[in-house]
Amino acid sequence: MAWTTYQLSLAVLMVVTGSINTLSTKWADKLESENSAGDAQPFNHPFLQACTMFIGESLCLLVFSISHFAKKRKQSQSNELAAVVDNPISSFNPLIFFPPAMLDMLATSTMYVGLNLTYASSFQMLRGAVIIFTGLLSTAFLGRLLKAREWLGMLTVIMGLSVVGASDFIFSSGGSNNSLNSIITGDLLIVMAQIVTASQMVWEEKFVTKHNVPALQAVGWEGIFGFVTLSLLLIPMYFLRVGPPFSSNPRMVLEDALDGFTQMKNNPMIILAMSGTVISIAFFNFAGVSVTKELSATTRMVLDSVRTLVIWSVSLLLQWQQFYWPQIIGFALLVTGMGVYNNIINASVCKCRRGSDSEPLLGVNEDQSINDEEGRPSVIH
Predict the structure, then answer these.
(1) What span, in angstroms and rounded, lies between the C-alpha atoms of 261 and 259?
(2) Could you say which protein family the record assigns here (predicted)?
């Protein structure tokens, strides 16, 4: 069935804003500005950037509130009060989102530190590791039994991650100012952060989905809790001394927010880059939720793979890194593994078989597991 103009617009919006999200963050990392010591240095403030990401997530709650109010007003004016669904804003305690917000804060901050040390394309590809840890944690804490195709998908993803990591190791000097140790450290931090992200998803599935909270509302609450908590944590980070490569500010502390504001003042392009993160996060979450609703979670996953390809292409175009062929293999393995895990590849084969009046392969229903993420309020960024 052909997509409508609205569905196509949502797909384009998701790919564009999702790509801007990573690229604008990496752009800010590469911009130089005079710091508080009077030296021109790259903008290395991952925790301050994570705060801007949570601002973008918080805007999702504003979008949800406006949409909910408009829908309620329209129903009231149409005298359809009997059809009004219970108000989701008052049907749950927002504090249920505090634990996943803390996990999101830890994962995002860790990933932004890693992004500062490695390539934007590797950052996006390595995030595919979340499938592995989500599958394992779901088995351990949700009692879920993984199917053979899911294990096969996870194995394929591991192979893809290995190729991407190996290519960073072999071609570490390709268009990057970071040392080999920094690049490998960044890659490891990104993969480790996926353990936390997987924990967040499992928590949400176990404790949050039973409340049937709209996804935009869930993202908004997690954004608010994450922003408030991380903003407060910037205070002790200002006094916590660390060494390179985790800090390059004059005081050599984990995060010097005042130094970050000084660099933003001296180079307005940094403000523009961080604004891109805020706006793209809000629109990306809205587009992602809408794509899942209008099309399917399968389409959402495919589009997420497309934005990885866009980020990689733009990074090459801007000469943030050089082209090296092993990443093609790694990307292909990652996409294949995610397709197998989410039953996309098997479902496509089933659809072809049905067109030939044949039975589905393995007897798997086309829709089985494809929409596992349907309605799940996981934060995406």
Answers:
(1) 5
(2) Belongs to the SLC35F solute transporter family.
- Between CA 60 and CA 65, with CA 63 as vertex, the angle to 5 degrees is 110
3-state secondary structure of 138: helix
What token pair was written down for 202? 């499992």
Q: Strand pairing partners for 241? A: 253
Neighbours of 372 (CB within 10 A): 17
87-113 as b/e, with b when 16 or more CB fall inside 10 Å? eeeeebebebbbbbbbbbbbbbbbbbb
How much is the pLDDT for 5?
A: 87
* Nearest by Cα to 151 from 317, 357, 337, 361: 337
Distance between CA atoms of residues 95 and 374, nearest Å: 23
pLDDT of residue 142: 84
In tens, the pLDDT along 280-295 reads: 998 998 888 788 778 7
pTM of the predicted structure, to 2 decimals = 0.83
Q: What local confidence, expressed as pLDDT, does residue 297 receive?
A: 66
Q: Which of 49, 184, 163 is closest to 108 using CA atoms? A: 49
Provide the H-helix boundaries in 39-147: 46-77, 98-117, 120-126, 130-141
Interatomic CA distance for residues 164 and 332, integer angstroms: 10
Q: By CB neighbour count within 10 A (0-12 exposed, 13-18 middle, 19+ buried), where does 235 fall?
A: exposed
Q: In the numeric block, which tokens belong to residue 336?
A: 């294949």
**In the chain, how many H helices and how many E strands?**
13, 2
Cβ-proximal residues to 12 (8 Å cutoff; 6+ apart), any chain: none
The DSSP H or E segment spanning 264 is helix 257-266
Cα separation, 77 vs 223, whole angstroms: 32
| Cα 272–Cα 278–Cα 281 angle in degrees, nearest 5 | 135
Cβ-Cβ contacts under 8 Å for 211 (sequence gap 6 or more): 91, 92, 96
| Position with higher pLDDT, 18 vs 174 | 18
